[in-house]
Amino acid sequence: MEISLPILILLSYFFGSIPFAYILPKLFGFGDIRNIGSGNIGTTNVLRTGNKTLTLIVLLFDVLKGFFPLIIIQIFFTKNFSELILLLIGSTAILGHIFPIWLKFKGGKGVATYIGYLLAVNYFLGILFILSWLIIAVLKRYSSLASIVALILLPIISLLFSYEKHIFYLFSIISLLLIFKHYLNIIRLINNTETKIKF
């Protein structure tokens, strides 16, 4: 299959930029999610609607946004590009979620989409990320803290899978970007004003 690199990047970005956390709450009758809770276009904020079914649906779709582009690229274009290039192309779906063109580049924090991406890279790597998140979330009841800790651990965990250094650097850059997107949460955590998860 012959598709140029720029087109693959754009397709991955546009797929990742579909704002399910914006579209689905409107369809469910909750209006603009940006007027609820933190105003963030993400799964955690959808949970603040009080509708757990809607939250699970949004979570699933956001995970799939990161999963499908990389899986499809790996299936059809493995012979065309190196592993690093494939992972870089797939990572643009995460950028699409964080900076969606449809919402003036103001999207979510990208954690759910990153989980889908990691599951496509190596399902065990994705599972370890999820377990790291769950442990901190259950112990501390802060979604943001759980995400930050899992993001810090992920590049280190990737070394245990014997990935080459440039892959480790890619994971580190993605983690740093997603941690930066949590800067307001970090401030609230420091000030002890961050909202806890209600399971």
Report on this model:
- This protein has one domain.
- The chain is built from ten helices and no strands.
- The chain has helices at residues 5-16, 20-27, 43-47, 52-77, 83-98, 111-121, 123-140, 143-160, 165-180, 183-190.
- The N and C termini lie far apart (46 Å).
Number of helices: 10
Beta-strand content bin: under 5%
Average of the residue pLDDT scores: 92
Largest sheet: none
- Strand/helix succession: HHHHHHHHHH
Domain unit count: 1
Q: What fraction, in percent, of the residue positions are helical?
A: 55-70%
Fill in the keyword field for this structure.
mainly alpha; 199 residues; single chain
Topology:
Blueprint: H1 5-16, H2 20-27, H3 43-47, H4 52-77, H5 83-98, H6 111-121, H7 123-140, H8 143-160, H9 165-180, H10 183-190
Helix pairs in contact: 1-4, 1-5, 2-4, 4-5, 4-6, 5-6, 5-9, 6-7, 7-8, 8-9
